[in-house]
Amino acid sequence: MTKFVAVVSAKGGVGKTTTTINLSSALDWFKRDVIVLDANFTNPDVGIYLGAPFKEKTFHSALKGNHHIKESIYRHPSGIKIIPGHISYKEAVRARRENIVDVVQGLTNLSEVVLIDSSPGIGEECRAVLKVVDYVIIITTPDVCSVANTIKIINLAKEYKIKILGIVVNKQRQEQHELDIDNIQTMTGQQIIGIIPDDSNVRLSLYNKNPVLITHPEGEASIGFKKLASQLIGEQYVVNIEKEPQRTNFREIMKRFGF
In angstroms, rounded to a whole number, what is the distance separating the alpha carbons of residues 71 and 225? Predict the structure, then answer.
């Protein structure tokens, strides 16, 4: 059975979309079958980041009932599968959020997991996404403002009775003013499941319309995303590993978290 996982954040600018894309690429590296769904209703960036901003069949057009959502799946040259949103203002305001449950459930059994890039914050767009997911992964940066706001998204997930897989600390520079991991875990009451260094290669990968795992596979961020993926699936990741691990069922993946 397909598992639906929302990637959420309490505020914009923390790297939620790049994390969604690159976590998908890392899971693909581990031979997992993943679909990235851009469910940011007003500012969908997945297609822009990956060089596919003007697709005819999108998440938005599926919400309007123009076609089945599976017709919106595109295979990116990197190998990952994406469902982009429509970038026009008119399509954003016309998005029929009330159809999201029926539309997204159309992806059941089409992959092991659907990673959903949500709108940031705790507003109605994020709440709509939480109606269709089994789990959430929360993205933050290691600063007081971001972490304090992250507590809001944690409480929202609990309100919707969604399982929290953990927090990913993005853009870590290991500077003195940053919150350390123990402080973040204490403030949020949640496990840190991934730490992604602030790597300029991520920005270069966006320029090249590819995940950083493709453009800079041995870079610090790529290693961080592979470690995150390995944490989620319960398999060991060794830097410069030569042999890729075998595929396992996503149900087995979630056993690590006791679900």
Answer: 29
Q: CA-to-CA distance for 46 and 68, rounded, in angstroms?
A: 20
pTM check: above 0.85: yes
Which residue's entry shows tokens 């996503």? 250
Nearest partner of 15 among 186, 143, 174, 196, judged by Cα = 196
Question: How many domains does the chain fold into?
Answer: 1
- Output the domain CATH number for residue 217: 3.40.50.300
pLDDT, tens digit, 9 for 90 and up, residues 87-136: 887 777 677 888 999 999 999 999 999 999 999 999 999 999 999 999 99
163-172 and 192-197 as β-strands: parallel, antiparallel, unpaired? parallel
Structure tokens at 227: 């470690």
Look-up: residue for tokens 């923390």?
14
Sequence-ordered list of residues with C-beta below 8 angstroms from that of 178, at least 6 positions apart, any chain:
142, 143, 172
- Give strand pairing partners of 166: 137
Distance CA 259, CA 253 (A): 9
- Rounded Cα distance between 3 and 109, Å, is 9
Instruction: Give the integer Cα–Cα distance in Å for 125 and 223.
Output: 32
Residue-number span of the structural domain to which 156 is assigned = 3-255
